Amino acid sequence: MTERRERLEGDAARKAWRWSFVSPQQFACPRTGKLVVDVAFMDKADAMFTLYGRQVQVTDGYWSLEHAKRVSSMGALDPHVSARAIRVATFGKEAHALVTLALASGFTGLGVSQSGRRKKSIDLDDLPVTTPSDVGVLPRPWVWSF
Q1: Whether pLDDT at 1 is above 70
Q2: pLDDT for position 128
Q3: Burial of 29 (0-12, 13-18, 19+ CB in 10 A)
Q4: How far apart are CA 80 and CA 26, in angstroms?
Q5: 58-108 pLDDT, tens digit each
Q6: What pLDDT score was predicted for residue 2?
Q7: Cβ-defined contacts of 2-7 (< 8 Å, 24+)
Q8: What is the DSSP string of 85-137?
């Protein structure tokens, strides 16, 4: 059964904006500027960041399909396309605290980029938990590196 979720786009998303951890400009697609939000995801993230109690730097939120095809090996399956993912610049002790809180808050996808010269960051998503028999969806819970 597919879960029904409220999505807001463009001006409707901007007018309804209530999430203090990120601005609409930060969450919008970096390539197209299009803004799409999944309300339940944003509420979950906002509650988690409130508990986290520190200012965060969001580097990615929603991705248009065009952008995902250019930057992600998953293309249309990438959680950013569903507006159910966020990337936060963080590392070390702060990254550990964020990951611990994210898992306790029900996030099911955890991407980690903590090595090399790239900016250190954590990706979080809340895609539905899957079973081995689910086909055509990303497995969750899941941890990956990028």
Answers
A1: no
A2: 96
A3: buried
A4: 13
A5: 999 999 999 999 999 999 999 999 999 999 999 999 999 999 999 999 999
A6: 57
A7: 3/128, 5/38, 5/39, 5/40, 5/41, 6/38, 6/39, 6/40, 7/36, 7/37, 7/38, 7/39, 7/83
A8: EEEEE--HHHHHHHHHHHHHTT--EEEEE-SSSSPPEEEEE-PPP--TT--SS
Q: How far apart are CA 14 and CA 5, in angstroms?
A: 18
Provide the mean pLDDT of the chain.
95
What separation in angstroms does the CA of 141 have from each of 32, 84, 115, 119? 30, 14, 23, 25
Amino acid letter, 138: L
Sign for the pseudo-dihedral over CA of 22, 26, 32, 33: positive
Enter the pTM of the model: 0.93
Cβ-contact 32, 49 below 8 angstroms: no
CATH 3.30.1380 fits 7-145, yes or no: yes
Look-up of token digits 């500027």: 33
